[in-house]
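Module 6 notes. Inverse folding takes a fixed backbone as the condition and produces residue identities as the prediction. Think of it as a translation problem where the source language is geometry and the target language is the twenty amino acids. Below is one complete input and output pair. Work through it position by position during the lab.
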């Protein structure tokens, strides 16, 4: 079924049972598998591929150019983004999410993975099977995410970072170094959970600590001037 005001480019293939909502745009040579549902205003850029039973919610863009520029004498020169996006079977992508095409090669969303609304996936990212990414998560270019990884809301991951299978990243975490398989991290910057909670607990005691240090400094000053009680 093709809804009103859709644009289907040259060379597009759409599998049996797939449904395009209103205003969906499929650019040239896009491949859509069987039993997919692309809701209103979804855009899939040229040559990108979606597997079977993929669901894409309204406003999502798959295959926009990756964010690649090279400083030069005349400012930032754009690096051509000539790769594609491959979305494997049974993936669900939330509303207003962006999955950037690769500079070369492909950006990959693994089978069965689920992306919430407002998620950003950078160029050349590889996400393994059965991952769950919560809202406002942003993954920078060339990251490798293993299988079964869970990310809370507003997680940010620096470029070229690896996250191992089964890792859990707490909401709001800033990840700048590799995360081992099975590890749970939390915080900004992200640290192993137990260490992060100890730091958080210590931070809550800082006002009392500052007051005590001030009292000790005053007492020391009185002692040095011979005015100690």
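Target side of the pair, the amino acids:
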């Amino acid at each position: 079924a093709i809804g009103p005001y859709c644009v289907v480019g040259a060379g597009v293939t759409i599998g049996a049972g797939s449904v395009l909502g209103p205003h969906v745009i499929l650019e040239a040579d896009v491949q859509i598998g069987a039993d997919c549902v692309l809701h209103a205003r979804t855009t899939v850029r040229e040559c990108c591929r979606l597997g079977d039973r993929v669901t894409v919610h309204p406003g999502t863009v798959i295959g926009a150019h990756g964010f690649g520029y090279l400083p030069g004498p005349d400012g930032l020169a754009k690096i051509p983004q000539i790769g594609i996006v491959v979305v494997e079977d049974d993936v669900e992508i939330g509303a207003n999410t962006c999955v950037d095409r690769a500079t070369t090669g492909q950006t990959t969303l693994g089978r069965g993975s689920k992306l919430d609304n407002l998620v950003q996936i950078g160029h050349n990212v590889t996400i393994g099977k059965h991952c769950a990414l919560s809202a406002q998560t942003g993954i920078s270019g060339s990251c490798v995410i293993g299988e079964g990884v869970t990310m809370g809301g507003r997680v940010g991951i620096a470029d070229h970072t690896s996250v191992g299978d089964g890792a859990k990243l707490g909401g709001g975490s800033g990840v700048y170094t590799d995360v081992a398989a099975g590890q749970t991290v939390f915080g900004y910057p992200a640290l192993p959970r137990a260490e992060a909670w100890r730091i958080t607990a210590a931070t809550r005691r800082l006002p009392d600590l500052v007051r005590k240090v001030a009292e000790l400094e005053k007492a020391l000053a009185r002692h040095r001037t011979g005015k100690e009680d």
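Reference fact for the lab report: Residues 94 and 117 are 4 Å apart (CA to CA).
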